[in-house]
Each structure stands twice: as C-alpha cells, then as structure tokens.
From TrEMBL:
One of its GO terms (biological process) is phosphatidic acid biosynthetic process. It comes from the Bacteria. InterPro entries: Plipid/glycerol_acylTrfase (IPR002123). It comes from Lawsonella clevelandensis. Pfam families: Acyltransferase (PF01553). One of its GO terms (molecular function) is 1-acylglycerol-3-phosphate O-acyltransferase activity. Coiled coil: none annotated. This is Phospholipid/glycerol acyltransferase domain-containing protein. The lineage of its organism: Bacteria, Bacillati, Actinomycetota, Actinomycetes, Mycobacteriales. The chain crosses the membrane at residues 32-49. Keywords: Acyltransferase, Membrane, Transferase, Transmembrane, Transmembrane helix. Residues 71-186 form the Phospholipid/glycerol acyltransferase domain.
Length: 240
C-alpha cells in the first residue's frame, strides 16, 4: 500500500511539473509572438503594401471588453496577409489564427502555423464539431481569435461575400464580443509599385444574451451576422 501511494504521489508531481512546463512554454511563445514575430511582420508588410489603419479607439474599447474573456476579430478576406491588420490594431496582444487543416501538413508553412498554435479547420461534420470545441476552449481561456466569415479569399475584392454563420454561433454561444475590421482596397496609382489598403477598425459588437436552448437562438445568430455584415458593407461602400 505505501508503494502504491508513493507511485500515485510521483504521478501527481510529474503531472504538476508537466502542467507548469506547458504554461511556461506557452508564455514564452506569447512573448516571442508579441515582441518578435508580430513586429517583424508589421515591419515587412509596408514593403509590400501601403496600409492606413484607422479606428484605434474602437480597438481600445475591444481591449476593455476582453480583459476577462476571449473575443473574435472578424476580417474580410481580400489579401493574403489581411490578418496582419489585426496585429496593427491590437499589438502587443497575442492573437490566434485559423487555417485549413491541410495547411498544417505543408513542409515549412505547416511547421510555422503549428508553432503558433493555429487551429485547423477540418472538413465534414466531425471536423466542424472539433473546430467548434477547439474555438470554444480558446475563447473560455480568454484568447482573441482572428476569423474570416467570408471563408474564401478574393484578392482585392471591393464587395463583401456572404458571411457564414460559424463565427456568430461562437460569439453567441460563448458570449464574447466581436471586433470587425474591414480591409478596403484603394485605387492603384499608375506610378506606384505597391497596392494601397485602408484597414478600418469598427466598433465592437456585443452578442445578445441568449442561450443555445432558447427558441430565438438561431434568429439571434442570424441577426448578429446581418448586423456585422451591414456595418462592414457600409464602410466598404463609403470608400468605393
């Protein structure tokens, strides 16, 4: 019996040590992301494109709303690196990104994505359930996640594609705010080699306080989706 108790005690100590090491490694990665990787990306992007960011006050409001909970940052998908605009708006906060699951298997890019804990979007019903579970866990841990509600990339597109409902289900189910960021391609100057983009941070949107089991849940999700879509569409039309 004493040997068994000693074995259980060793297991418990090993588990505590493992948990401590995982937390330490997570903190190290967060610091590397915030103070090395993110500044590097933000320094490189202007070499490829002129970017003007407006709406920093709205980003600050989102920070206040997410001091004790997670949140969703929603961007339209009009450029390969448009997720970088969220870095500009919320730096030095650590952000989490999503990607197609098959991208995690790519030789170099997959290793980079895995290192930064990118969440793979798998196809099929089971894959969607796993993705929702992973997203919910991150949000409950207080993480901010960047999502593209359009789903597909359309390079330098000036009109929004229809939004999928997945991000808005997450927002309502986990009761986390949404920060919309609209990327607006600007007319290209005939003498310029770089494209120009206006990234506008819109006011954060708080989801309605409703339970998944309530009768009006689906209607609330659709209303939230339509509200964010309208906000972003209006800004794109104003610049167009």
């Amino acid at each position: 019996m004493p040997n068994r108790l000693m074995f259980i005690g060793c297991q418990s100590a090993a588990e505590r040590w493992r948990t401590c090491c995982m937390k330490l490694w997570s903190n190290i990665k967060s610091n590397v992301f915030s103070f090395a990787f993110a500044p590097l990306v933000m320094a490189v992007l202007p070499l490829l494109m002129r970017v003007r960011l407006v709406g920093r006050d709205n980003a600050q409001q989102y920070r206040r709303l997410t001091q004790t909970r997670g949140g969703l940052v929603l961007c339209n998908h009009t450029y390969y690196l448009d997720g970088t605009f969220a870095l500009y708006a919320l730096w030095p906060r650590r952000l989490w990104y999503t990607t197609q699951a098959e991208n995690l298997s790519l030789p170099i890019a997959g290793q980079i994505l895995s290192f930064w804990d990118a969440v793979g979007i798998e196809r099929g019903k089971n894959g969607q359930k796993k993705f929702n579970d992973d997203m919910g866990k991150l949000l409950r841990e207080g993480k901010s996640i960047v999502l593209y509600p359009e789903g597909n990339l359309r390079l330098f597109e000036k009109e929004l594609q229809p939004f999928h409902k997945g991000a808005f289900h997450l927002a309502v189910r986990e009761q986390v705010p949404i920060l919309p960021i609209v990327a607006i391609p600007l007319p290209r100057r005939w003498w310029g080699l770089r494209r120009s983009m206006r990234a506008e941070v819109l006011p954060p949107v708080v989801p309605p306080a409703i339970s998944v089991d309530d009768d009006g849940y689906e209607a609330a999700v659709e209303e939230l989706r339509d509200k964010v879509f309208e906000m972003m569409s209006v800004r794109m039309a104003a610049e167009g």
